[in-house]
Amino acid sequence: MSDHASGAQAVRAGMTLETFIMEGMFGTPAATGTFTSLLNQISFAAKLVTSQVRRAGLANVLGYTGEVNVQGEQVMKLDELANETLITTLGRRGHCAAVASEELDEIQHMTNDRRARYVVMFDPLDGSSNIDVNISIGTIFGVMRREGEGAVSEADFLKPGRELAAAGYVIYGSSTMLVLSTGRERGVHGFTYDPTVGEFFLSHENIRTPERGSTFSINEGNACRWGEPVKRWAEWIKAEDKATSRPYGARYVGTLVADAHRTLLKGGIFAYPADKKSPDGKLRLLYEANPFAFLFEAAGGMATNGSDRILDIEPKKLHQRTALVLGSREDVTTFGAFMRGERTA
Ligand code: AHG
Ligand code: MN
Ligand code: MN
Fold first, then answer.
1. Is 126 in the pocket of ligand 1 (CB under 6 A)?
2. Where in the chain are the domains?
3. Is domain 215-339 in CATH 2.30.29.80, yes or no?
4. Please, are residues 130 and 255 in contact by the beta-carbon 8 Å criterion?
5. pLDDT score at 32
6. pTM over 0.70
């Protein structure tokens, strides 16, 4: 049994995500009822997307739609399907005032009811380039509480990630897992989907990222575009040195959710630094970097843009990009020392 669901916790492992939320395991926001309901809506959307993903090859949802999204990227049929599913599901029950999605140019209003206290940002289908080759993909989301009674606007989304009420992701891998947190004090918990029952069951209670890991995850195909500090760090981490357990093992799936999930559980470092081709970084702040930064900090890990804390970045635009480094505290700290020129080897 994995070290997360030891014998003592096996009893709780029979616990569904719904029960876990209802019992306020995610902290006081659950007390309001709307937050509980919103989280359950997200988990329902994840079940619907899971069934679409698992049948993608059969349900003719592989391949491209022929459209290009605001990112200038080809839209896969599954990107669109997951996007529609999340919008439709979150539009019910009136708790979500608006959504921001990688697949939408602007925010989409969900209700005029001023009592809707939350907005949700998401990457409906992460790892699109891996859909057609049956490699793990995912969904990433963040939940932000609205302040004041005013009409919902983009300003409700453009807040630093440290203000998130909840964040999580779904990984459609060898099994489907939903990982969720409402912040440091309440921990990070993983729920594995049992398709025979149609429920997410607690399988990884209180995920903690090890202080240091043994793998590094970066697209070395970009090496010729990296700045000197990243090149020096990459050479350092691949050098032989028994005393510091180097070289680290290389792992790169090319789906953020998969590379980040492995790093969250096992430790190590994931980096998508800025480079000559992507001077602001490639990954999106609101619905890729912030949710994962929130989760890594809640699990005792760390998340920077190479030097500064991701969760303190003041967003200016919905789809703005950032460099992203996620992982074990020690490994991300070392990366930062190279970036600041404090280390060259
Ligand atoms: P998306 O499929 O939502 O556009 O995200 C793809 C992202 C992310 O999942 C991954 O970490 C990164 O693109 C991989 O980029 P490279 O192929 O440039 O390594
Ligand atoms: Mn993505
Ligand atoms: Mn995507």
1. yes
2. 3-204, 215-339
3. no
4. yes
5. 63
6. yes
Q: Residues with beta carbon < 5 A to ion ligand 3? A: 102, 123, 125-126
Q: How far apart are CA 325 and CA 323, in angstroms?
A: 7
Rounded CA separation 190/13 (Å): 10
247-268 confidence digits (pLDDT tens): 999 999 999 999 999 999 999 9
CA of 114 to the centre of ligand 2 (A): 30
CB distance 219 to ligand 1 below 6 Å: yes
- Dump pLDDT digits (tens) for 202-247: 999 999 999 999 999 999 999 999 999 999 999 999 999 999 999 9
| CA 41–ligand 1 middle distance (angstroms) | 26
Tokens in use for 256?
Answer: 């953020």
Ligand 1, closest atom to CA 256? 11
Identify any residues that bridge with 139 across adjacent strands, giving them in sequence order: 170
Contact (CB, 8 A) for 176 and 50: yes
3-204: which CATH topology?
Fructose-1,6-Bisphosphatase; Chain A, domain 1 (3.30.540)
**pLDDT tens for each residue of 49-58:** 999 888 877 7
Query: Which residue from 289, 232, 301 is spatially nearest to 102, judged by alpha carbons?
Result: 289
Q: Give yes or no for a cis peptide into 273 (omega within 30° of 0).
A: no
Q: How far is the CA of 29 from the centre of ligand 1 (A)?
A: 32
Cβ–ligand 1 contact at 217 (below 6 Å): no
- Spacing, Cα 213 to ligand 1 middle (Å): 22
